[in-house]
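Students often ask why inverse folding is considered easier than folding. One informal answer: many sequences map to the same fold, so there is more than one right answer. In these notes we will look at a single instance of the problem. The structure comes first.
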């Protein structure tokens, strides 16, 4: 567990590079916001959370994997993570922030990820392609 990163993960770096290439400027891991969001776009009052499919129990095939050892411990841990995510997003929304969740499996298709992020920000910012 100590070797599992919470910052600067491969999917997070992919999302950062994509956002930067789209002209979006951000801050990383703002400690004054609930859940220390991965990317914070203050200008747009928006945060982007990059979630690992396994750790945050995504509905994809990677998120539905059930470990064979200590399965009860893992199911409790993942349930708590899911509840914490929900609580953090609600707290952000109460503060007037919008939240976008990007899943690890979505980072494997750059074009689809670009459409998702650009579509989300399209009403907030003008993209010059």
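Output (designed amino acids):
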């Amino acid at each position: 567990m100590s070797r599992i990163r919470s910052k600067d993960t491969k999917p997070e770096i992919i999302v950062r590079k994509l956002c930067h290439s789209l002209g979006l400027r951000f801050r990383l891991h703002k400690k004054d916001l609930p859940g220390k969001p991965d990317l914070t776009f203050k200008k747009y009052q928006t945060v982007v959370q990059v979630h690992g499919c396994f750790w945050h129990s995504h509905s994809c095939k990677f998120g539905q994997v059930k470990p064979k050892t200590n399965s009860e411990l893992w199911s409790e841990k993942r349930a708590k993570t899911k509840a914490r995510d929900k609580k953090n997003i609600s707290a952000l929304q109460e503060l007037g922030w919008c939240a976008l969740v990007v899943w690890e499996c979505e980072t494997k298709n750059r074009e689809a990820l670009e459409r998702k992020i650009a579509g989300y920000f399209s009403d907030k910012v003008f993209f010059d392609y």
